[in-house]
Structures are given as structure tokens and as C-alpha cells.
Design goal:
The radius of gyration is 49 Å and the shape is elongated. It is built from nine helices and no strands. By secondary structure, it is mostly helical. Among the domains are: 101 residues, no CATH class; 72 residues. Helix 1 packs across helix 9 and helix 7 packs antiparallel against helix 8. It comes from Kitasatospora terrestris.
């Protein structure tokens, strides 16, 4: 915000609620339903959340007053010993039995009612004229009604306790401070809605939508056909075949002509009949 007052993170939910309420305003709804090209309610909401700081600056004075009262209340000490956190703990310990009772009473009553009804109907089935069966059934229905009554009374008591605790102030604190703080918060919400958010929504109805952040792009692969690109050179490792007798010398360096010597052939001696 202006003058060094920024919208704190814990107050952004309040800004969101006031923004949602402003988007439901009659003037804004009529502008959204009008013909022509303009932003939708969702686009306005997204853009307003991105510009929360400058928008909230329109209610900076009320916001500073609200923060000052909140800080003063947080720093105010308890007026007497036993107040503050200790008194709150004592109050919670003293009020712990009632919620337990409101839960246990209906359960115990309905458990007893179920047992009595089962026994009563069993006795009625075995001996219809037996008086004990009717008595047990009556007791079962009474226990069932008592459970319903206990549940109703417990629910009402819990609601009244919640309302009392929500409106009460901690011991040792000035109730006027809490009343002033509530008034300051309402005043800030009113100023934020009427002087800041509503004028901004109407002024930005025809603006461009907020741009969502684009994901980082991967680098493009190199163009193998573009000029100036040369492939990496590759050379196969040198290989020398072992020397083969008749093809290379014993060190496998220079070829030589294979030397071939045919096997010697001697025709068999032939003797004619006259030489026998």
C-alpha cells in the first residue's frame, strides 16, 4: 500500500472475500451482462488478485487504523494475574465435562433402549400374556425417548456455549478494544469495497485479461541442413589383420605373392606284354 503500508498475508483472505462480494454487486453484474467484448467475472477476479496491492491502496487510511488497533490489542497486557492464557485454559478445563455428557447421555440411553426392547419383544413372543414383557417394552420406549431428549438438549447447549464463547472477550482485556477493532475492520472492508475494488472492476472491465506465466521453452535442436553446420568427425580405430601365410609377411605389413608348389607326381611304371 501507499506510505509503506502493505497488505499483509493474513489479510489477503479478507481482500478475497470483499472482492467476491464486489463482483456480485448490481452495477458490476449489469456491466458483465451488457453486450460487447469485455472480461468475464473469472478474468476480473484473477486480474484483481494479481493487482491486490495497488487496488488495496485505495483504502490505505482505514487499513492503517485497523492494523494499529490490532497491534495495540496484541501488545496489551492482562489487567490482573490469572488473565490471558491461564484464564482461558481454566475456562476450557471447567467446560470440558458438559460436551462429554452431551455425547455420552444419548448413547447410553439408546443402548439401554435397544436392550430393553429386545428383551421385551422376546418375552412377548414367548408369553404374550406375561405382564413383565409389557413392562420391559415400556421401559425401552421411555429410554429411547430420553436419548432423543438428551441429544436435543445437548445440541442446544453446545450452540449457546459457542455463541457465548464467540462473543466473550478474554479475561484481563478491555472489551472496548475488541469492539473498536471490529469496527475498524468493518470500516476497512467498506472502504476497500466502495472506494477501491468497485471502481477498479468497472475501470478494467474492457481491459486485457491477465497473462498467465508461460512455461520455460526447451532449446531447439540444431538444424542439420542450415549453412555453417558441420557434423562431428568420426574416425574408425586402426585395425591390422594378423599376418596370413602366403598373403602378408609375418609382421602383417606388406603383401607378398603366395608360393605354391604342386605335389610331385610320378606315373607308375608300365610294362608291356613283350617285356614280361
Amino acid at each position: 500500500m501507499s506510505n509503506g503500508t502493505h497488505l499483509l498475508a493474513e489479510d489477503r483472505p479478507d481482500f478475497t472475500r470483499v472482492l467476491d462480494d464486489a463482483l456480485r454487486d448490481t452495477t458490476v453484474q449489469q456491466a458483465l451482462r451488457a453486450d460487447g467484448r469485455h472480461l468475464t467475472a473469472e478474468q476480473l477476479h484473477t486480474k484483481a488478485m494479481l493487482h491486490a496491492e495497488p487496488i488495496a491502496a485505495g483504502a490505505a487510511e482505514e487499513y492503517r487504523h485497523y492494523l494499529a488497533l490490532r497491534t495495540a490489542l496484541a501488545d496489551a497486557p492482562a489487567s490482573h494475574p490469572g488473565g490471558g492464557l491461564t484464564a482461558r485454559l481454566r475456562s476450557e478445563e471447567g467446560a470440558g465435562f458438559f460436551p462429554v455428557l452431551t455425547v455420552l447421555a444419548p448413547i447410553l440411553a439408546w443402548s439401554a433402549a435397544l436392550l430393553l426392547l429386545l428383551i421385551g419383544y422376546a418375552l412377548r413372543g414367548a408369553a404374550p400374556d406375561l405382564v413383565l414383557g409389557r413392562t420391559v417394552l415400556t421401559a425401552g420406549w421411555v429410554a429411547l425417548a430420553a436419548g432423543v431428549a438428551a441429544l436435543t438438549a445437548g445440541g442446544v447447549g453446545l450452540v449457546l456455549t459457542a455463541l457465548r464463547d464467540g462473543s466473550a472477550t478474554p479475561r484481563g482485556q478491555d472489551p472496548q478494544l475488541y469492539a473498536d477493532l471490529a469496527d475498524a475492520r468493518r470500516a476497512w472492508h467498506t472502504a476497500l469495497r466502495d472506494r477501491a475494488i468497485l471502481p477498479w472492476l468497472l475501470a478494467n472491465l474492457d481491459s486485457e485479461p491477465a497473462l498467465s506465466p508461460q512455461p520455460g521453452q526447451r532449446p531447439a535442436p540444431p538444424d542439420l541442413l542450415s549453412p555453417g553446420y558441420s557434423r562431428g568427425t568420426y574416425a574408425s580405430p586402426g585395425f591390422t589383420s594378423p599376418g596370413v601365410e602366403g598373403l602378408t609377411d609375418p609382421q602383417g605389413r606388406s603383401p607378398r605373392h603366395a608360393e605354391f608348389t604342386g605335389p610331385g607326381y610320378t606315373p607308375p611304371d608300365f610294362t608291356g606284354p613283350d617285356e614280361v
